[in-house]
Design brief:
There is one protein chain. This protein has a four-stranded antiparallel β-sheet with strand order 1-2-3-4. It has five helices and four strands. The chain is α+β, with helices and mostly antiparallel strands.
Length: 195
């Protein structure tokens, strides 16, 4: 769909560049640059919402409401499934801690990050990956790491489809947010999980 996004730029580029091929190449680069800006803005919006998501397990209703316009239906469905697993576990064993009750689901660090900045953006036709440069600061302790947003382009534009955990320390979240939820759902259903 990159060429479809480039169509508004082709006519103007033909006037400037002369040939249709040069104009199409320029228009495609312009459309890709616009996509890069859109993807970066989406990641910035995630970083703005992140403090409300940080470290508390599943998002509160208000945080979930703020997150919903940024995510795909697939990630939204995964978060709904996680809430269902959480609620069922509470009903089945009221005294036990349910899954997804605490810890940061949106970064590698259980405690969560105290800052979130957008890093490098990698674009493909209908997918993108954005580095999130997280930092955690508590007193004199400071650590930093990079996780990634997996982003898809759909009919309604670019949306976050997953959070990929890149932390490489003991007890870090590993894999991805959706993978963690899918594993928990498979375990609950008695299905084998890929550990």
């Amino acid at each position: 769909m990159l060429i479809c996004n480039a169509l508004p730029h082709i006519a103007r580029a033909e006037e400037i560049y002369g040939s249709t091929l040069d104009a199409q190449a320029h228009a495609a680069r312009a459309a890709a640059a616009e996509d890069g800006v859109e993807v970066s803005q989406l990641a910035e919006a995630f970083c703005a919402v992140y403090p409300d998501l940080r470290g508390g397990g599943l998002p509160s209703p208000a945080a979930r409401h703020a997150l919903e316009p940024l995510i795909t239906l697939g990630l939204d469905g995964a978060l709904t499934a996680a809430r269902h697993l959480h609620d069922v576990a509470i009903r089945q064993a009221p005294g036990d801690k349910p899954p997804f009750a605490d810890g940061d689901l949106f970064s590698s660090l259980f405690e969560g990050a105290t800052s979130c900045r957008v890093g490098a953006v990698t674009l493909a036709r209908n997918t993108a990956s954005v580095e999130l440069r997280y930092a955690y600061e508590a007193g004199t302790l400071m650590t930093g790491w990079t996780d990634r947003l997996s982003i898809l382009r759909g009919d309604d534009g670019w949306r976050i489809d997953d959070v990929v955990y890149d932390g490489r320390w003991d007890f870090a979240n590993t894999g991805s947010l959706r993978g963690m939820i899918e594993s928990a759902a498979a375990a609950e259903a008695g299905l084998p999980t890929a550990d």
